[in-house]
Specification:
The complex is a heterodimer of chains A (319) and B (334). By secondary structure, chain A is an alpha/beta fold. Chain A is 35% helix and 28% strand. Chain B is mainly α and 334 residues long. Chain B is 73% helix and 0% strand.
Chain lengths: 319, 334
């Protein structure tokens, strides 16, 4: 395996008494898409800022592409693209002028800048409106322009903070497609988000943040195995149910728990896929089966299950 | 575990090995160019420019009307363009002392918090530049804009003077007014740096603008009153002796010189009125043998205003250093 491109050891950041990030160990391999997950204020953005040298760690060490962001921030920032949460641009300038400023700050020559800007605008499909003032752009277009802005420096790593927040489903979908496109181009991507389904759709590995600590990390599948214990969740909707159905379902072999989730809707948590048994039970019980499916194990479940088990009070969250 | 990590961090060797690499000036020119381009095209600057051109034209025209009667025996006719006031208009330098701070504050009050509110700050700082380049670039860009505007007005006045008076300025007059231009730029620099500090400290541009204007009002209106009161406390007059009266006047002058407005006013007097021999108190004994009313050569006038000049520059640098220190420590997360 290659050397990790991002390597953090015992990374810690305190703001006064408040520990924003505590003893973080993180290794991201080249070419992978790593997702940082967690509720707001769990320490994702602080971690990103430390990786870029924009805030100094209280303790611990970081290496990004072999550089120390504390001492060599310019080397790191020349190779790592960062798309902040809710990115902003100069409204009175056009998209192209905004990108030219970024190119100048990166010290690119005029020709290189022009070529890269054209390529970046094409990639995010904004070339047709590149001459328009950014003030007229929609939120989704701004986010895509943000990706183009990051691409101007031809980065080896891209760090995206909440890239789909505030976008409509169409905009979010476009941004996610872009991320997959960049992954295919061989760029390592670090993605912070609390929108689990989207993260699941694009990430190879995820790390779950809770109160400044990374409490779990691995592939979605591995996390599911660990947190959910290989459990299945069967969702069942039936009409004309007799009272006795719930006990009947819970007596099925392998069923762990049956909960009533609404009118005629039950969810069964089980050790195995017992759809066939459940269907038989409903029909034999004299009711009509309307819907029956088994939920794919999603990050949502892992997340909810994990955080149901830890208490939520007593700690102060900051943005 | 945490305690161990903290200890290990503290035990780390000296600052030298932790020193950051790369030049703090990387990207400085890009920031300066962007800042100047922004200001020179902004509506805000057009309004301020219109205002100052209008006052320059008005006051200089008024001055020319009254100078035409004065005749050509005055050696410093051109300098009178700046200082002659014709009712109801005050002299041009009076307007300048009033308008320059306003322009400077107008240029700088949203330097940093504006970037923050547009959510461009973290994107900017994620580019391979240090914060130094951003702050200094903004300051120099604004100072450049201010210099450009003031130089344009300076040339405008010269042109008007040539047309209206019909006499070319002497080289002495040109040098004196060039020094005035330089002093005016640094006087503006103080208010730029002050507005920059406000833009770092306050998150809302409106608050920053108000704070800077409040400071300006304080020095323009209240500092003189306060200086008189303070001088009475510091050097009270108990018996009414000459020494006591002189001491009080000296303290009052000293206190009033803490205000950039006083420093600038004294520079203007020293430069534009070559007959000025002292900016402080003079006792009759000190004037023995002096040719009263004879103008000083430029070199001597410069010597006279040199402390004031260095004072203006020093305050500008100090305020910028304060903005720098505050900005370096600021968390940039949105």
């Amino acid at each position: 395996m290659d050397d990790p491109v991002i390597l953090a050891r015992s990374l810690t950041k305190h703001y006064g008494d408040f520990a924003a990030v505590e003893q973080l160990n993180l290794a991201v391999q080249p070419g992978e898409v790593f997702g940082l997950l967690g509720p707001n204020g769990a320490g994702k953005t602080t971690t990103i800022l430390m990786l870029l040298g924009l805030t100094e760690p209280t303790a611990g060490s970081v290496r990004v592409l072999g550089f120390d962001p504390v001492r060599q921030p310019l080397h790191v920032k020349a190779r790592v693209g960062y798309l902040p949460d809710q990115v902003g641009f100069y409204n009175e300038l056009t998209a192209r002028e905004n990108l030219i400023y970024t190119a100048k700050l990166n010290g690119l020559s005029r020709q290189t800048a022009a070529a890269r800007i054209a390529a970046a605008l094409e990639r995010v499909d904004l070339q047709a409106v590149a001459h328009k003032r950014v003030g007229t752009y929609s939120r989704g277009m701004l986010q895509r322009l943000g990706v183009a802005d990051v691409l101007v420096k031809d980065p080896q790593i891209i760090i995206l903070d909440e890239p789909t927040q505030g976008l409509d489903p169409q905009g979010a979908h476009e941004v996610l497609a872009l991320i997959l496109d960049l992954k295919r181009a061989g760029i390592t991507i670090l993605l912070a988000s609390h929108l689990l389904q989207q993260v699941q759709a694009v990430c190879d590995r995820v790390g779950l943040f809770h109160r400044g600590r990374m409490v779990l990390d691995g592939t979605v599948e591995a996390l599911a195995q660990r947190v959910l214990g290989g459990a299945y969740r069967v969702r069942l909707e039936a009409a004309g149910l007799p009272e006795a159905l719930a006990p009947m379902l819970s007596s099925l072999p392998g069923a762990l728990q049956v909960s009533h989730a609404g009118a005629g809707v039950y969810t069964i948590e089980a050790r195995r896929d017992l759809r066939a048994d459940a269907a038989r039970a409903v029909v034999n019980g004299g009711a009509s089966l309307l819907q029956l499916d088994v939920e794919a194990r999603s990050l949502d479940d892992i997340y909810t299950r994990y955080f149901r088990e830890v208490d939520h009070d007593g700690q102060r969250y900051t943005g | 575990m945490t305690a161990n990590a903290t200890l290990a961090n503290k035990g780390r060797p000296a600052a030298a090995s932790r020193a950051r690499e790369g030049s703090p000036w990387t990207g400085l020119w890009a920031v300066i160019a962007k800042e100047m381009a922004d200001h020179l095209t902004s509506a805000r600057m057009r309004i301020l420019e219109f205002l100052i051109v209008l006052t320059a034209a008005g006051t200089v025209y008024g001055a020319m009307q009254s100078l035409k009667g004065a005749g050509a025996e005055d050696r410093f006719l051109f300098l009178r363009l700046y200082t002659t006031s014709t009712d109801p208009l005050p002299a041009f330098v009076g307007f300048l002392g009033f308008l320059v701070p306003l322009i400077a504050i107008g240029l700088a009050f949203d330097s940093i918090n504006g970037e923050f509110n547009r959510r461009t700050l973290s994107r900017l700082l994620a580019q391979p530049i240090y914060r130094d380049a951003l702050l200094l670039g903004k300051f120099l860009g604004q100072l450049g804009t201010l210099s450009l505007v003031l130089s344009a007005i300076w040339l405008l006045i010269f042109g008007l003077g040539l047309l209206g008076l019909g006499v070319p300025p002497s080289s002495e007059e040109v040098w004196r007014s060039l020094w005035l231009l330089l002093a005016t730029i640094f006087y503006g620099g103080i208010w730029l740096a002050l507005a920059l500090v406000c833009s770092v400290v306050f998150r809302q541009p409106a608050t920053a603008a108000l704070a800077a204007i409040a400071a300006w009002l304080f020095f323009t209106v209240f500092w003189g009153i306060l200086g008189g009161l303070l001088a009475r406390v510091v050097s009270p007059v108990r018996f009414g002796t000459v020494q006591e009266l002189v001491a009080q006047a000296q303290s009052q002058l000293g206190i009033s010189r803490l205000s950039p407005n006083t420093l600038y006013a004294e520079i203007m007097v020293g430069l534009l009125n070559p007959g000025t021999r002292s900016l402080g108190l003079i006792l009759p004994a000190q004037l023995q043998g002096a040719l009263l009313g004879a103008p000083l050569p430029l070199r001597q006038s410069l010597l006279l205003i040199w402390p004031q000049m260095t004072g203006l520059i020093a305050v500008t640098l100090l305020l910028f250093a304060l903005a720098y220190a505050l900005f370096q420590r600021q968390e940039i997360r949105a």
